[in-house]
Specification:
The structure is a single chain. By secondary structure, the protein is of the alpha+beta class. Helices cover 37% and strands 26% of the residues. The strands form two sheets. The chain has a five-stranded mixed beta barrel with strand order 1-2-3-5-4. Strands 6-8-7-9 form a four-stranded mixed β-sheet. A hairpin with a 3-residue loop joins strand 2 and strand 3. Helix 3 packs antiparallel against helix 4. Bound molecules: zinc ion. The site of zinc ion (ZN) has 7 residues, from helix 5.
């Protein structure tokens, strides 16, 4: 039986029985762990306030066999203003669902933890529009698992400057407008062709490409510090959502719920 102390963010909580919860915690150094939190549904329990989704806390955890048990906790941040706004709450839930889907157990996921904390913190401050934060999160989270789009040159002609054209949302590569008419996708390259569909693509221009480079490559503390004009923002919102869905090959109920509110 071993006991250790670690900072972590609760990214999912599920009630078990009358009084207990199973917490999914994204921890410093250890990545994702599942923690049994006994008695935390009771108002009197000292760990109650750290046993909700979005609680960032210092946890004392005991490992017994294959299971982790919550022993003690000290709240660092509970993102109160996010919990009290249905739009922010639903968007933060989506962020946690995406992170929960991609974070691994027993692997250092500190970059994903920082991304989650910075994104949820940004929701709490009102410095950026919610859609700005969502678009940047969707691109950066995919970049953090090594699937960043290659937006430095056209994948066909190699052009590097002032590219307008398309981003291929499956292969994550650019096709400049001069090359679009020259290529025809084989069935192997376009898994949708068999059903008579085009490969998913999104429109890009030099401003959007610079924004993508910034979001995916900047220090994670500053990844939201970019701006675009309104039309380009709308293109980026669409591109980032469809890029994430195509790269992860799934959507999320929490995303559908958030979008039903806006
Ligand atoms: Zn080209």
């Amino acid at each position: 039986m071993t006991e250790f102390k670690v900072n972590g963010l609760v990214i999912f909580d599920r009630e078990i029985g009358e009084n207990d919860k199973l917490l999914t915690v994204l921890c410093e150094k250890y990545g994702k762990i599942f923690v049994i939190a006994k008695g935390v549904k009771s108002m009197k329990n000292r760990n109650m306030c750290c046993s909700h989704i979005f609680s960032y806390a210092s946890f004392v955890i005991r490992r017994k066999g294959n299971y982790y048990y919550l022993v003690d906790s000290d709240l660092i941040e509970n993102f109160f203003s996010v919990r009290n706004d249905i739009l922010k709450l639903s968007l933060a839930s989506y962020f946690c669902d995406v992170i929960n889907h991609i974070a691994q157990e027993g692997v250092n996921e500190d970059q994903l933890l920082r991304l989650a904390l910075n994104s949820i913190f940004a929701l709490s401050t009102d410095k950026y529009e919610l859609e700005h934060i969502r678009a940047a999160f969707q691109l950066r989270v995919v970049a953090e698992i090594g699937m960043s789009p290659d937006v430095f040159s056209c994948s066909h002609c190699g052009k590097t400057e002032e590219i307008s054209g398309h981003l291929d949302l499956i292969d994550g590569v650019l096709i400049c407008k001069d090359c679009i008419g020259k290529i025809s996708y084989s069935l192997e390259e376009n898994p949708f062709a068999e059903r008579g569909l085009q490969k998913p693509i999104a429109t890009v221009n030099p401003s959007i490409i610079e924004a993508i480079k910034y979001i995916t490559g900047s220090d994670i503390k500053k990844f939201l510090s970019f701006s675009l004009d309104l039309n380009d923002y709308n293109l980026l919102y669409d591109l980032s959502e469809r890029f994430l869905i195509n790269q992860l090959e799934r959507s999320f109920y929490s995303l559908d719920f958030y979008k039903s509110l806006i």
